[in-house]
Amino acid sequence: MDILLSFGLDKIGFILAAIAYLFFFGLLLTTKVSNLPKYLLLALSIASFCWAVYYSWSAALPFTTLSSHLIENSKNAMLLMFLLAALSPANNTVGKFFRRHHVYGLLIAICSWTFVSSSGLLSASNIFTGNLAICILQLALLEALYRRSGDAKWQYKPLVMALTITTLYDFALLAESALFGRIDDQIWFARGFVYGAMVPLMIIAVRRIQAWGINVYISRDIVLQSSLVLGAGVYLCLLAITGFYIRYFGGNWSNLIQATFILLGIATLIFLMLSGTLRRKLKVFIEKHFFANKFDYREKWLLLTRSLQKIDITQPEDHYKSLLVAWLNSIGYSRGAIIRFKASSIKTLALQQRPPLNNDERQIISAYRQSFGSRNWLLDLSDSSDSFVRQNVATKLLDIQLIIPIHTKGELWGLCLMNAPKVNKLSLNWELRDFLTIVSEQISSQLLLMQASQKLSENAQFIAFSRMSAFVVHDLKNVKAQIDLILKNAAKHRHNPEFIEDSFTTLAAMQQRLQNMLSQLTNKRPDQQTDSLISVGRLVQDVIENRCAVRKPVPVLHIEQDCTIFIDKDRFSSVLFHLIDNAQHATEADGEVTVTITEHANQLKLTIADTGCGMSDEFIQNRLFKAFDSTKGNAGMGIGAHDALHFVEQQGGQLSVKSVPDQGSTFTLLLPLKSSFSLAEPQEKNNTRNVI
User: Domain spanning 531-672 has what CATH number?
Assistant: First the structure.
């Protein structure tokens, strides 16, 4: 410590500042950019280095000798030039910058001031005051730079802070000196430390300021080695301090305990320094927290999301290739494939700028499946240090670099294979592995969604066909009821010409209805409705006589006020038959089924009342209108009431039910006579159809 004090604290500070500025100068030399800010930063760092070396070697105080005047004013001139360049347009060249009037005028003024101040014509206070004015000019330029940075204040803040602190320190030193006519030694001793401490802020600033294009490169290996050395130094210091206290408080056994502790501590340090696991973890920690990321994750994620949004999962022809392209673009690769495992086979789903898989590639994929089938492991086939690569790749002909697994329900579903030209290849380090893992999870979810969408689409088609078949079977029951009615009446009226004529008419209608049903099944879609203007009373009478008379009790029709409505006759007659037939099934043969037709508030009001078994409120709410839920056992399909409700709501009407158990039920249909779902009035004017 005595040696350090005799050498001088100010010398130590300037030596540290010189080392810091030399390091900063070396970092700037590693950049490939060539522009005005870089050149002036290099000049400023060289001037500051020379300034620090001068004061670490010379015992002279500032502004007391000719050499001190030259070194101080050179540093101040370089700082002023740099600040003026930072305030100038970004496309300035060195020649254009120094040809500006205010630039070379300022250089002439500083040179003149250096000559005058070093000539001995001015007193010490006047010299300090003149240099104080230079500090004020520097502070004004720093304030202008920060104010004009606008939205980029975050980029310029470290630079402005570092230069402002050093300038304010010089300002305080010169103000004190101008007042008393001499340099204060205590303030002077800290000058080198202050300048050296501000260099890290300047390094951060030049990395942040994008307008200058200066990307200072610091080797990750150098930072790792420096961190290990620094950590070892701190560890040894703590070891020494702990050993000192052990010896101080240890008593008779203090020397033995101290020696044993230090020996074990050094052994532990050597073990840790040689540990590959520790070095890897430290390197990953440094890269994560002290270096810029390889990707702009926000931009990459937005690009991936937009690419996935453009994929139409309902079009199975090309969505696998679109997904593969989005996957490749996420890391800037150009060639790849998506494959799927089915039992022991490999199925190629998409290829991008590469030929189909060859035998060598299939062998590698099979080996990967055996080794990593239960692990979500990303593999780089260009990594010769990987044991799998050494054992399996060898001399095989491969167009694969990265193998990315696709897992579902804990099983290996498939793989994404990627490759790129050598200049664009990325090494599979921790960052790329983490990024690809996240991207793969997102794309795998999209891929599985596509698979599920295809299955749902197929199932929906089967459900729609089954549903249509159920309605067709229900309509076949109606046709059968008409045949039963013809056969029942044939025994009595077979010789009646009118009966024979009506039978042929009914058979023709049945034939047309069967034709429509076959058309629906063949085309896999319901036939289009054909609306017509009908008399409701006549239609209900026809349904009762031709379709419902075969079962007792035979319905009784009351027409209080007949109505005409523009509607699909076949569908409406089927709905009426379903409701009346249900009422007949629910009523004993000696009971009553009554159908009443009237008009209410410009609406058709049709009620079907029976004196049957009735229904509970719970049954009406939960089961009555539920498709394929029947109380008739195998004799019913359970879609009559459901179809009736759906049809009435399509017409903009209402279907309500009132029922009391063991007393009967009443169904009420309300249909608008001028339905907004039909074009009754235009059709009446244009077609002048007859009332059926």
Answer: 3.30.565.10
Phi-psi region of 332 (alpha: psi -120 to 50; beta: other; left: phi over 0): left
In the numeric block, which tokens belong to residue 63?
A: 């502004």
pLDDT at 677 over 60: no
For 297-448, the fitting CATH number among 3.30.1330.80, 3.30.450.40, 3.40.50.2000, 1.10.3810.10 is 3.30.450.40
Please give the structure tokens belonging to residue 653: 């009407």
Task: Check if the beta carbon of residue 28 is closer than 8 Å to that of residue 43.
Answer: no
Amino acid at 274: L
- What's the rounded Cα separation, in Å, for the pair 11 and 5? 10
Residue among 365, 425, 373 nearest 401 (CA): 425
8-state DSSP, 404: E
The amino acid sitting at 96 is K
- Considering only CA atoms, give the Rg of the chain: 47
Residue 322 near residue 310 (C-beta atoms within 8 A): yes
Backbone angles phi and psi of 408, in degrees to 5: -150, 130
Q: What is the mean pLDDT of the chain?
A: 76
Strands 556-559, 593-599: pairing is: parallel
Tokens 């009754």 belong to residue: 680
In whole angstroms, what is the distance from residue 88 CA to residue 144 CA? 12
- Rounded Cα distance between 167 and 159, Å, is 12
The token pair at 172 is 């305080």
Kindly tell me if the per-residue pLDDT of 55 is higher than 70.
yes
C-alpha–C-alpha distance, residues 515 and 533, integer Å = 23
* CA separation for the pair 567, 677 (Å, rounded): 9
Q: Are 135 and 170 spatial neighbours (Cβ–Cβ below 8 Å)?
A: yes
The answer to whether 472 and 637 have CB atoms below 8 angstroms apart is no
DSSP string, 626-690: STT--SSGGG--S-HHHHHHHHHHHTT-EEEEEEETTTEEEEEEEEETT-TTS-HHHHHHHH-PP
Q: Identify whether the C-beta of residue 188 lies closer than 8 Å to the C-beta of residue 61.
A: yes
| Closest C-alpha to 439, from 295, 629, 276 | 295
- Digit-coded pLDDT (tens) for 232-266: 656 666 666 676 666 666 666 566 666 676 667 67
Whole-angstrom CA distances from 582 to 131, 353, 553, 577 are 109, 65, 12, 8
In 3D space, the residue among 564, 563, 579, 567 whose CA is nearest the CA of residue 529 turns out to be 567
Output the six-digit token pair for 38: 């870089």
Distance, in Å, from the CA atom of 31 to the CA atom of 149, rounded to the nearest integer, reads: 23
Q: Is the pTM of this model over 0.70?
A: no
Sheet with strand 335-342: strands edge to edge: 345-352, 335-342, 411-419, 402-408, 379-380
Quick one: which of 426, 453, 156 has its CA closest to 311? 453
Which residues, 6+ apart, have CB-to-CB distance to 62 below 8 Å? 55, 68, 72, 183, 188
Contact of 31 with 217, CB cutoff 8 Å: yes
Instruction: Give the DSSP per-residue string, 289-338.
Output: HHS--SS-HHHHHHHHHHHHHT--TT-TTTHHHHHHHHHHHTTT--EEEE
Cα torsion through 435, 436, 437, 443, rounded to 10? 120
Instruction: Please check the confidence at residue 666 and state whether its pLDDT lies above 90.
Output: yes
Type of residue found at 261: F
Residue in this structure with the two tokens 């508030």, named with its chain if needed: 601
Report how far residue 547's alpha carbon sits from residue 570's, in angstroms, rounded to the nearest whole number: 13
Domain 8-217, classified CATH 1.20.1070, yes or no: yes
Confidence of residue 595 (pLDDT cuts 50, 70, 90): very high
DSSP state of 100: S
In sequence order, the 6+-apart residues with CB closer than 8 A to the CB of 475 are 513, 517, 574
Q: For the purposes of burial, counting CB atoms within 10 Å of the CB of 584, is it exposed (0-12), middle (13-18) or buried (19 or more)?
A: buried
